[in-house]
Amino acid sequence: EVLKCLAHGMSNRMIAQEFNIVESTVKIHIRNILRKLRFRSRVEAAVWAVSNNIGTDFVPKSEQDEYEDE
Q1: For the segment 10-58, what is each residue's pLDDT rounded down to a tens digit?
Q2: 1 within 8 A of 25, measured Cβ to Cβ
Q3: How far apart are CA 23 and CA 11, in angstroms?
Q4: Torsion sign over Cα 15, 42, 52, 32
Q5: Cα separations (Å) of 1 from 19, 23, 40, 51?
Q6: What whole-number distance in Å separates Cα of residue 32 and Cα of residue 24?
Q7: I need a labelling partner for 41 at 20 to 30 A (CA). Which of 6, 17, 35, 68 fits?
Q8: Whole-angstrom Cα distance, residue 17 to residue 40?
Q9: 65: pLDDT strictly greater than 70
Q10: Whole-angstrom Cα distance, residue 66 to residue 11?
Q11: What secondary structure, in 3-state letters, does 8-55 show?
């Protein structure tokens, strides 16, 4: 789920708010993702996620209100 948020360009603060966790927990999750995928930056992870269609169906809570209004 955190990788999907990265693919959407969300900041650590936004991800923390999305899942009701603290930013330090988000940082740990991102660090683990980068280590497992052998990437050096969150941008690399985000580009990889987008190019592999990860998170294409994910709609952050902050954007869900916009879809409900349509």
Answers
A1: 999 999 999 999 999 999 999 999 999 999 999 999 999 999 998 777 7
A2: no
A3: 10
A4: negative
A5: 9, 15, 19, 16
A6: 12
A7: 17
A8: 24
A9: no
A10: 19
A11: CCCCHHHHHHHHCCCHHHHHHHHHHHHHHHCCCCHHHHHHHHHHCCCC
